[in-house]
Amino acid sequence: MSRLNDANLALAREIIGRYPKARSATIPLLHLSQQQNGYVTQDAIAHVAELVGASSAEVMGTATFYEMFKFEPVGKYLINICGTMSCALMGSEELLHHAEHVLGVKAGGTTDDGMFTLEHAECQAACTEAPNMQVNYRHCHRMTPNAFDQLIDDLRAGKRDADIPAHGTLARVRQQIPAEKAAGAVHPDTVDGPAWMPAPEAAS
Amino acid sequence: MSTYPWAAGYIDDGARPQVVTSRFKYDDGYTLERYHATGGYEGFKAALRRAPGDVHEEVKAATVLGRGGAAPPAGTKWGLMPAQKYPRYLVVNGDESEPGTYKDRLLMERDPHQLIEGCLIAAYAAGLSQVFLYIRGEMPLAHERVGQALNEAYAAGYVGRNILGTDFSVDIVLHWGAGAYVVGEETALIESLEGKRGEPRLKPPFFPAAIGLYGQPTIVNNVETLSNLPWLLVNGSAAYTSIGTQTSPGTRMVAVSGHVNRPGVFEIINGTTTFRDLLYADEFCQGIRNGNELKAFVPGGGSAPWFTPEQLDVPFEGRAAGAAGSMLGSGAIMVMDHTTDIPSAALTLTRFYAHESCGQCTPCREGGTWLMRILQRIVDGQGTKADLDQLLEVGESICPGNFPHASSSKLGLEAVPFPYKMTTICFVGPSAYAPVHSALTLFRDEFEAKLVEPAVPSRRQIPVTAVH
Ligand SMILES: Cc1cc2nc3c(=O)[nH]c(=O)nc-3n(C[C@H](O)[C@H](O)[C@H](O)COP(=O)(O)O)c2cc1C
Ligand code: SF4
Ligand code: FES
Fold it and tell me: Within an 8 Å CB–CB cutoff, is residue B292 touching chain A?
């Protein structure tokens, strides 16, 4: 059931076609299955493996290397509080403690209602706006305890649905390469130089 | 499109030259319409009117230093590819995750067409057959903005087959990462793009330019590096080198965070701006918060050895920073005022690198974890004198010999210049040690103040379980 559905399968094939080698699409396809199911299931691993021509073990090996892939259900909202230097200097530890208190879970835990998973995270490329956190990887800059409480209320009330989709969905605008415009993936075994470069004779 | 806060932090007082941030003042700087209205794609069109080799020479003449960390000049790096070996690939490094670094995300969210134009110029000049634009996974807005911009660029005929009616054809493929700092290392980036675990490759070969993606010649360039090219092709290398210094021409984006009055991201003139300017000048950060004293600052991302007020007059220039015992890295300064607890601050960085170790090399995997655990113990008030020695000993096993550090007249220390020796495949291992070494060299008294007498006067056993 958690293999890619028909629409996602079509998308997956399109994505694979952009790469010279199918296996390069492993991470994008894992994202796609996480978007479909909220996390990466064993069936999805097997399906991605089939699609990219690798073994399930190889795909699992890749998937487990990356922080963003979850192999068990997480909350609808994944809250990542940055604890690296710039944020730590500006009070991220207090923010994390506040979050643990408000949500009633320790970092790493999920609330009983399945709404929130709380995590200690590392630098989010927003260091001048510390302390930072992300909700489903959407940045929240210069957080305060009050702003945190407000955000949690809004998320519970569904007021942020327009800009913060459920866990697993990253960008909602995807790249599309129209077939008639595509230059095409260039396989490593292609030996010709690009057409716009002078031929070897002309160059020498 | 989303309404959550984006691209905050950029500060411009209108006084400095703008090579890469000129469109940041527009709320719609990411659209093709705005890009066209502000001279967009003119640099690329100018390039298309010239021979590829000629464009390559122009980039070489400008000495566009790489903005990703090690600062190799872009044109020279492209020239390292073996002649006539095709296909060649361009992999754009948009994995920005070095602690303190905040610039590539801004460039991707606010001016994605400029980056795309930079990719096109590079591909045309260096004969690159396909472009992969690898964006850090935890940046969905950058994925959206760059994805949307690519869709517009394809529709307008700037990317794809027979671009603008010429023989030049190239696809730019947007690729999402999935969260792993080490993937920013160029050979790990390539492994990741091949669908594998993001583990850095053993060197040699030292350059992906020789053997990279699928074993083919590959150029890896940082987002900011490529974003310089459109301006360069419009204005020429003479104009580019007239900004900054001879060894560091052009401008640079620098993020200053931590205990300053006005933290922010600035586009500064390369080479001449000093750290004192950046931290204290009105046009930049306007001094330390609450009128506090400056204690120390990290000058070039979490991997860089620390500076103290004694180094404030060092210019933001690669060689000068290297001679003073550190590096500029990714253009990130993190500022600590006198209230900062130095061992705890060092811990936040060492924990980062220990957590991000890919695990291939024992000195990094085990050593980073040891450093983190010993530091944690000291911060928790349970460290002993032996722990301080142990920190240096573990560091020595990652980086044998003299590790670079700044001078201190107070402590009678001479600077030890960059670089260092290392026992690991990549710089993550040494980076775990850098904050420990700086903190312990410059602020040893703060560690000693936290020590306790050991209950049993023997060396402690250190737990060796992995952090993951
Ligand atoms: C551990 C590690 C992490 C790195 N992370 C990044 C990064 O996030 N972004 C980046 O552009 N370069 C990063 N680099 C540098 C790259 O390896 C590479 O030098 C750079 O992308 C080349 O681009 P440039 O020549 O345009 O600077 C990292 C290097 C190391 C060793
Ligand atoms: S130094 Fe660390 S991160 Fe780098 S290759 Fe070795 S184990 Fe991996
Ligand atoms: S340290 Fe928190 S965003 Fe960089």
Answer: no
Ligand nearest to the CA of B399: 2
CA B179-B184-B185 angle, to 5 degrees, is 135
In a domain, A63, yes or no: yes
> B18-241, what's its fold?
Rossmann fold (3.40.50)
What is the band of B15 on the pLDDT scale with cuts at 50, 70, 90?
confident
CA dihedral for B59, B63, B69, B70, sign (positive or negative): positive
The answer to whether the CB atoms of B193 and A171 lie below 8 A apart is no
Q: How far apart are CA B2 and CA B145, in angstroms?
A: 10
Query: Looking at residue B216, what is its pLDDT?
Result: 97
Ligand 2 contact, B308 CB (< 6 A): no
Dig out the tokens for B165 from the structure.
């009616």
Residue A199 counted as domain residue: no
Question: A84-123 as b/e, with b when 16 or more CB fall inside 10 Å?
Answer: bbbbbbbebeebbebbbeebebebeebbeeeebbbbbbbb
Nearest to A80, CA basis, from A138, A156, A135: A135
Question: With a CB-CB cutoff of 8 Å, which residues 97-126 of chain B face chain A?
Answer: 97-102, 104-105, 124
Kindly report the nearest CA distance between residue B38 and chain A, in angstroms. Answer: 24
Q: In the prediction, which pLDDT does A99 show?
A: 98
CB contact under 8 A, B178 and A68: yes
On whether residue A183 sits in a domain, the answer given is no
Q: Is the ipTM of this complex over 0.90?
A: yes
Interface of A with B in 16-55 (CB under 8 A): 18-21, 23-28, 30-31, 52, 54
Rounded-to-integer distance, Cα B60 and Cα A117, Å: 49
**Residue B33, both tokens:** 């319409």
Domains in chain A, number = 2
Query: A186 CA to middle of ligand 1, Å?
Result: 25
Ligand nearest to the CA of B183: 1
Q: What is the mean pLDDT of residues B410-419?
A: 96
In terms of residue numbers, what domain contains A122?
Answer: 77-156
| Min Cα–Cα distance to chain B from A70, Å | 11
- pLDDT value of residue B456: 60
**Residue B2 binned pLDDT confidence (cut-offs 50, 70, 90):** very low
pLDDT digit string (tens) for A64-113?
A: 999 999 999 999 999 999 999 999 999 999 999 999 999 999 999 999 99
Domain at A34, CATH number: 1.10.10.1590
Is B195 within 8 Å of A54 when comparing Cβ atoms?
Answer: yes
Task: Tell me: pLDDT of B7 over 70.
Answer: no
pLDDT in tens, B142-163: 999 999 999 999 999 999 999 9
User: In this complex, do B257 and A130 lie within 8 Å of one another by their Cβ atoms?
Assistant: yes
Secondary structure string (H, E, C) spanning B65-102: ECCCCCCCEHHHHHCCCCCCCCCCEEEEEECCCCCCCC
For residue B35, pLDDT over 90 is answered with yes
CATH number for the domain that contains residue A103: 3.40.30.10
User: Average model confidence (pLDDT) for chain B?
Assistant: 95
Q: Of the candidates A42, A71, A100, which is a domain's last residue?
A: A71
Ligand nearest to the CA of B398: 2
Burial class (CB in 10 A: 0-12, 13-18, 19+), B57: middle
For domain B341-452, give its CATH number from 3.40.1260.10, 2.40.10.270, 1.20.1440.230, 3.90.800.10: 1.20.1440.230
User: Counting one residue from A and one from B, how many pairs have CB atoms under 8 Å apart?
Assistant: 265
What are the start and end residues of each CATH 3.40.50.11540 domain in chain B? 18-241
pLDDT at B453: 87
Mean pLDDT of B359-383: 97
B93 lines ligand 1 (CB under 6 A): yes
What CATH number belongs to B248-338?
A: 3.10.20.600
pLDDT at residue B1 in the model = 34
Residues within 6 Å of ligand 3 by CB: A 82, 84-87, 123-124, 126-127, 130, 132; B 99
Token match 């107070």: residue? B410
Tell me: the pLDDT tens digits for B41-74? 999 999 999 999 999 999 999 999 999 998 999 9
Say whether A85 and B147 touch across the interface (CB within 8 A): no
